């Protein structure tokens, strides 16, 4: 195992508090940064391992025997144990849990296209491939190669969602509310 430099790092960086997520994407409160600025939110870790941690390549599932869950191939050969050797105490388990939730969202919910592409790039892609400024696309083939890229699949998802929204609005507008015979 590598014995590279070790430093004290955040488990869940306080600046990330605004990204806290629940299953329904709702919180009864707005998380405050101060709640994460405490010693329980710190860990001693090698620099190379922290880079993987911060990139959400792996996380710790405190609710399942502190099992280390790997989400990215880059963490496969890092020499990580199957379980965290030290059991988190106090609010440390809370911060590990938040990191795990965030990592799940990054990998399984699909993330946000703006992580990879700025809004101008997305808009330019839409216009270059036949969408107008309102984000409509009249005739398209979902199997077309432009929709096989990451950005293309995201755009296709948005186009379909927008069409469904407009169709629902059109249906609602056509309904005068009088259902009497």
Beta-strand percent range: 5-15%
Unreliable runs: none
Please outline the major beta sheet: 2 strands, antiparallel
* Estimated helix fraction: 25-40%
Distance between the termini: 79 Å
The count of β-strands is 4
Counting DSSP H or I runs of 4 or more residues, the number of helices is 5
Tell the overall outline.
elongated
Structural class: alpha+beta
Mean pLDDT: 77
Strand order within the widest beta sheet? 1-2
The sequence of SSEs as H and E is EEHEEHHHH
Radius of gyration: 22 Å
How many separate structural domains? Answer: 2
Strands, helices and their partners?
Layout: E1 6-10, E2 42-46, H1 47-54, E3 58-61, E4 67-70, H2 92-108, H3 113-116, H4 119-128, H5 150-174
Antiparallel strand pairs: 1-2, 3-4
Q: Which characteristics define this entry?
A:
4 strands, 181 residues, two-stranded antiparallel ribbon, elongated, alpha+beta
């Amino acid at each position: 195992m590598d014995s590279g430099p070790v430093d004290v790092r955040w488990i869940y960086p306080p600046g990330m508090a605004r990204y806290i997520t629940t299953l329904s994407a709702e919180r009864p409160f707005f998380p405050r940064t101060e709640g994460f600025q405490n010693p329980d939110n710190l860990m001693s870790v090698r620099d190379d391992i922290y880079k993987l941690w911060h990139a959400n390549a792996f996380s710790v599932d405190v609710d399942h025997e502190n099992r280390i869950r790997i989400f990215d191939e880059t963490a496969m050969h890092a020499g990580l144990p199957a379980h965290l050797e030290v059991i988190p105490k106090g609010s440390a388990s809370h911060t590990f849990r938040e990191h795990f939730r965030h990592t799940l969202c990054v990998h399984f919910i699909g993330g946000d296209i703006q992580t990879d592409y700025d809004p101008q790039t997305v808009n330019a892609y839409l216009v270059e491939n036949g969408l107008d400024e309102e984000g409509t696309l009249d005739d398209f083939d979902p199997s077309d190669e432009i929709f096989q890229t990451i950005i293309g699949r995201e755009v296709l998802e948005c186009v379909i969602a927008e069409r469904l929204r407009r169709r629902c609005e059109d249906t609602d507008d056509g309904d005068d509310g009088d259902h009497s015979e």
